[in-house]
């Protein structure tokens, strides 16, 4: 959107707020766009007096976000990229493992990112008995607990990520169910993405002055 454009409706805040207190040493882990959600929580944890160690991971250099901002609110910041095009090649869990192996005292881990990343973090910290909070991102529709779309299994009980979460104890989440539910619409999502990319190609071929605002939705020229 451009400066001056408006958003029709905004609903919120929804769900429960993050638990912010002085835990001691907190490792905040952001994977991909999860870093955008991890940043304000890292800042709040720092303000609450915690020692904050942030670990950010992205697929490649272009996808590393909020580095400067996170550095300002962290006592230490580590970055990994899957392909090694920036900082250290590897995954955020490699850095967490290093911290654990170095004997760093960790009172809490907060992990926000793709499901496989949060699952791997939770498995690693379970063995070490380090309290771990994950922020879940199931498909959400209404965001108010009515549709059931965001249902997750926590300690064998159904919870709604939109009202009971999004943050849950990572050691109690059934990640297998989460993976299965989040892949329910994969075929439809891929079809939408293909259509979007096809229309974007068409749009990109139209000179800017000839474009109409509905070009993306109706291919209008
Ligand atoms: S998004 Fe509908 S119940 Fe959570």
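Sequence proposed for the structure above (221 residues):
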């Amino acid at each position: 959107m451009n400066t001056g454009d408006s958003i029709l409706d905004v609903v919120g805040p929804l769900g429960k707020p993050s638990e912010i207190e002085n835990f001691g040493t907190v490792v905040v882990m952001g994977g991909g766009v999860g870093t955008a959600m991890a940043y304000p929580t890292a800042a709040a944890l720092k303000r609450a007096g915690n020692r904050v160690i942030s670990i950010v991971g992205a697929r490649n250099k272009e996808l590393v976000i909020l580095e400067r901002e996170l550095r300002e609110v962290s006592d230490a910041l580590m970055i990994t990229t899957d392909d090694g095009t920036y900082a250290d090649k590897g995954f955020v869990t490699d850095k967490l493992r290093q911290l654990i192996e170095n004997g760093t005292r960790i009172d809490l881990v907060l992990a926000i990112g793709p499901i496989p990343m949060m699952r791997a973090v939770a498995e690693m910290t379970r063995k070490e008995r380090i309290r771990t909070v994950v922020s879940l991102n199931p498909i959400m529709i209404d965001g108010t607990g009515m549709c059931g779309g965001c249902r997750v299994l926590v300690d064998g009980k159904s919870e709604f990520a939109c009202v009971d979460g999004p943050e849950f104890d990572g050691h109690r989440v059934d990640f297998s169910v989460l993976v299965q539910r989040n892949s329910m619409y994969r075929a439809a999502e891929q079809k939408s993405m293909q259509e979007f990319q096809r229309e974007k190609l068409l749009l990109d071929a139209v000179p800017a002055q000839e474009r109409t605002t509905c070009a993306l939705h109706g291919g209008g020229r």
